[in-house]
Amino acid sequence: MTSTNDIRSAFLDYFSSHGHRIVPSASLVPQNDPTLLFTNAGMVPFKNLFTGQETRSYKRATTAQKVVRAGGKHNDLDNVGYTARHHTFFEMLGNFSFGDYFKADAIEFAWNLLTKDFALPKEKLLATVYAEDEEAAGLWRKITGLSDDKIIRIGTSDNFWRMGDTGPCGPCSEIFFDHGESVFGGPPGSPDEDGDRFVEIWNLVFMQFFEEAGGVRNPLPRPSIDTGMGLERFAAILQGKRDNYDTDTMRALIEASAAALSQDPDGPFKSSHRVVADHLRSTAFLIADGVLPSKDGRGYVLRRIMRRAMRHLHMMGAKEPVFYRLLPALIRQMGAAYPELVQHQALIAETMKGEEERFTALLERGLALLSDEVSRLGDKEALPGDVAFRLYDTFGFPLDLTQDALREQNRTVDENGFSAAMAEQRARARAAWTGSGDAAAETVWFDARDKHGASEFLGYSSEKTDAEI
Ligand code: ATP
Ligand code: MG
Ligand code: MG
Ligand code: MG
């Protein structure tokens, strides 16, 4: 079985042998875009090269980029534990052309890598194209020999990529792998496309136009290429699995979580172990990149992720901090590829342990209150918003933690009631408040955060420049 670590290296080596510079992963905290919450795609560190603001000594690059999608425009947090193919932290493999090669080469590179170097059977692959992109459809047919029914035209914005309201944009092609008839799901563009049968593995973006304010699109004199492939999804396929969480790396983390609690990784708490394994990665990598749990901004997203994992651990019987004890298992899996984990091991462990120590007492009391309140609810009745707010305000339960806890019981939270309770408290606080100019700015931020949630707020303001492969 090819390990995830070997797949990553093979990908980078392949593109290196085709003239691409191997560039190390950039930080999860975007260095060139203050409006973006986290690096959420491989192209983010290269934005200024695509717009032409910056040039470098190379015109082709390849990366394995650390990515977090737990806030803003791309928020996959609620998928984790429930889908076979979403993580909050994952690695995006990519190859990039900055005004160098274009569609034909991008398609050929991808196709040869998949079908020759990794020997994926051609009949299990499909490609989508943007409906108006006849050129791409023709190239797929010519280069790969795919039949017309395997080249699917999609007319929606899913297959048209834009960096922002203005700037580079263009059609894209997504490559899908077909897990076969025994798995439920329809091909891309069909009504049941959300099933697990057809999994998107690789997205090729053809940056062909520059969009001016007002919507006029001019052809770029030197079009560019941006691609992104999820390493975990690719590894699952190469390792003969249908589920990302069954790959070597994820499985080792799931087993560490189960072992720490003397449990069966595939027992009744299976999905909790998956959540813990996923959140362990986002937590450790975010701290390694300098994010610390806090009450706003990126730190609040991290805190939400950490507390959520901690609730799952607590539910599985953890009586004292265990989350940080899983860190060595992660370092065994990923420390060689990402030395920052090793370098910052002590800080990561202390931060995890400290947060868990602080939260455990609150968590226990909060959960007791929650189960007491739930026992009084009628069948299918939502949890009243003021209770969810009390859990947030007094016990430090992020709203999504409460929702996650209730989801297991098929219950929801009255979100409007939650917002109303939040607004009421704000009004009280404001009436009592006399502060400095700085605090005023903070209040504005908190108002927005209260309204949209921390990540949504940052995500909202980043909508214009948010990157999507
Ligand atoms: P999906 O439609 O499955 O949510 P996407 O179109 O949002 O994926 P892209 O933005 O195109 O994903 O990202 C490029 C690649 O990164 C995808 O083709 C996929 O392989 C991978 N990927 C995207 N989101 C995730 C995630 N949450 N966890 C793991 N891999 C992901
Ligand atoms: Mg997505
Ligand atoms: Mg997609
Ligand atoms: Mg995509």
Describe the structure.
There is one protein chain. This protein is of the alpha+beta class and 469 residues long. It contains 16 helices and 11 strands. The strands form 2 sheets. Strands 1, 2, 5, 6, 7, 8, 9, 10 and 11 form a 9-stranded mixed β-sheet that branches. A two-stranded antiparallel ribbon has the order 3-4. β8 (160-162) and β9 (167-178) form a beta hairpin. α6 packs antiparallel against α9 and α11 (345-375) runs antiparallel to α12 (385-395). The longest helix is centred in the last third of the chain and has 31 residues, at 345-375. It is globular and about 65 Å long. 44% of the residues are buried. It binds adenosine-5'-triphosphate and magnesium ion (3 copies).
Topology:
Layout (H helix, E strand, L loop, with lengths): L3 H14 L3 E2 L24 H5 L8 E9 L1 E2 L2 E2 L13 E9 L5 H15 L7 E6 L3 H11 L6 E4 L5 E3 L4 E12 L19 E14 L5 E14 H8 L9 H13 L9 H19 L8 H19 L11 H8 L4 H5 L1 H31 L9 H11 L3 H9 L7 H17 L5 H16 L1 H9 L7
Parallel strand pairs: 1-2, 6-7
Antiparallel strand pairs: 2-5, 3-4, 5-11, 6-9, 8-9, 9-10, 10-11
